[in-house]
């Protein structure tokens, strides 16, 4: 089929209209499953046409069919990437400006997927020309974005500006970048440039945007548009902190393990995902010493209090985004903290721990509320925060965090929390994966993060005395729970082979973690196990006699 090639000279409106109608008809045909092959060929023809920019822009600006606009945006992207080397500098910049202007002008459009597509196209074209453009040319694009994010043009435009930066950061990140048929070195140069010159600035823009709408959200009696702005800003901040910062290796090498070590567990049996955040010393002013974390914790606490009567709120986007960012801050490590014997890092972790205590403490009350219908996501995020803290500290530092303000340490809290989860598992004894399964796995990973480095270094004695006691008590409860489960399943012959194999594999992983906890309190747990075996053997002997 012949392509929809732009004609040279003034636009031929009749031809543009005809092309738009053909694309609209093709989109409708695909949706209604009417001759889809021919319809797909029509759309493909547009995407493969040389220099189709005028046509695609006409469709984006005039079509009432959202799918047609989506396809036009996709065609701009395909053609521009394909023809980039032959386009003039002015055409390249005009395509990016068109996309940016389009998303701002249509900021209130209900068809979010079209907006997202045009935003993604702008991000991809900006990356494609990143090494071609002068710094001043990039700045002109970002000036427009910054103006939108400041909120001068309303919350819809502010939201679109933040979303564009999210698309841009995603495009520059190696794990989420689009294929452009270019060597790896190109992508690496772009990544390095964005990280060194813009990433921190983007974070500050997002932080300021969220802070600018906080009061309005908290004080309003109804949901306001600013909620989506704040949610998008929190999401962008999380995305930026999730960046694979180039100085990670150097940071690992420079850390004193016994204060704020970054642990490489190698073959440990981790079931939970977490990412260390190591942006380096240049980020200290923005992330650590600016009061930013206090603002974030206060925002979540205020919203939590405001919506305490609405059970669903814990799972709404702004709550989820705020908690994800708080948990991510628990993974902050490396040279961002001053060389002050770990004191700055400990203060940072204590501040976060105090903020999340309401999510997980007291464990029995939290567990009871969940069993009575409360959403479990907040409690699980609290467990993830403990895992993150355990990953960047030693058992001694981990335990001392709470001891500075409470009569018991953080290890006791970890033990009590997991003990409560184990009790719930014993009560229900269900094959279905429930919140208590998830919590158990996350908390087991927390113990693993704390204990494996001690075992490998041969310094298990560094576990505090109260930690040994907490580990011993927890292990006894775990054994009781697993024996109860084993007893209940011993006579069950209806277990499918595949499920049984998966169950055995999962049990092997858990046993490895249980063994770590047992060895941490070996002077207590070995006599306990000997006594238990003796008791069970005695019962067996009585049965046989």
UniProtKB/TrEMBL annotation:
Entry keywords, A to Z: Cytoplasm, Nucleus, Protein transport, Transport
Gene Ontology MF term list: nuclear export signal receptor activity
Family annotation (SUPFAM superfamilies): ARM repeat
Keyword S-adenosyl-L-methionine found: no
InterPro entries documented for this protein: ARM-like (IPR011989), ARM-type_fold (IPR016024), XPO4/7-like (IPR044189)
BP GO terms, sorted: protein export from nucleus
Coiled-coil annotated spans: none
Subcellular location per the Swiss-Prot or TrEMBL entry: Cytoplasm; Nucleus
Superkingdom in the source lineage: Eukaryota
Any single Gene Ontology cellular-component annotation: cytoplasm
Family: Belongs to the exportin family.
Protein name: Exportin-4
Species annotation: Momordica charantia (Bitter gourd)
